Amino acid sequence: MLIGNLTRDPELRYTSKGTAVCSFGLATNRAWTTDQGEKKEDASFHRIVAWDKLAEICSQLLFKGRRIYIEGRLQTRQWEEQNGNNRQITEVVISEMMILDSRRSPDQEGEEETKPEEIDQEESQKKSKNSQQPNQTKNSSEEEIDTSDIPF
Predict the structure, then answer these.
(1) Which of 52, 83, 92, 146 has the smallest number of Cβ neighbours within 10 A?
(2) Residue 28: Cβ within 10 Å count
(3) pLDDT of 83-116, one tens digit each?
(4) Dihedrals phi, psi of 31, to nearest 5 degrees
(5) Please, which residues have CB within 8 angstroms of residue 129's CB and are 6 or more apart in sequence?
């Protein structure tokens, strides 16, 4: 189980049999205080791999900087390079992924977004309309819920 931020955009590829595989980097951070009271920080970097439907979902929803939670298993691969050097890499093959932030991708930043001032104005307009109709009362459980206010 890891919680961290993507260090790069996901890369989606397909095997020769058509199976989707997505890889991306994840940085995990930790902070602690030494016995002498000195604050320390450390970052670890992980190579993440997702397969099949989860790979396609990751490639669609994730982008550099996004904060996620993942569950998976460690897998170590070994191979020999053309020059004879032995290489080894350990990856986290994930089985679960959950997005923890509500950031927009860089290409969605220009899209229409309601600002806090606009929300206040809309609410005050709704209240003034309701106060102009004295015979109609609203119970708090009957109020309309604006889905754009939900953080996920």
Answers:
(1) 83
(2) 13
(3) 989 999 999 999 999 999 887 766 666 554 444 4
(4) -135, 145
(5) none
Question: Which pLDDT belongs to residue 150?
Answer: 57
Task: Tell me the one-letter amino acid at 117.
Answer: E
Instruction: Report the CATH superfamily, name and number, of domain 2-106.
Output: Nucleic acid-binding proteins (2.40.50.140)
Q: How far is CA 54 from CA 9, 15, 17, 20, 22, in A?
A: 15, 15, 17, 9, 8
Q: How far apart are CA 89 and CA 73, in angstroms?
A: 14
SS (H, E, C) the chain: CEEEEECCCCEEEECCCCCEEEEEEEEEEEEEECCCCCEEEEEEEEEEEEEHHHHHHHHHHCCCCCEEEEEEEEEEEEEECCCCCEEEEEEEEEEEEEECCCCCCHHHCCCCCCCHHHHHHHHHHHHHHHHHCCCCCCCHHHCCCCHHHCCC
- Looking at this protein, which amino acid is placed at residue 77? R
Please check whether residue 40 is in contact with residue 63, taking contact to mean a CB–CB distance below 8 angstroms.
no
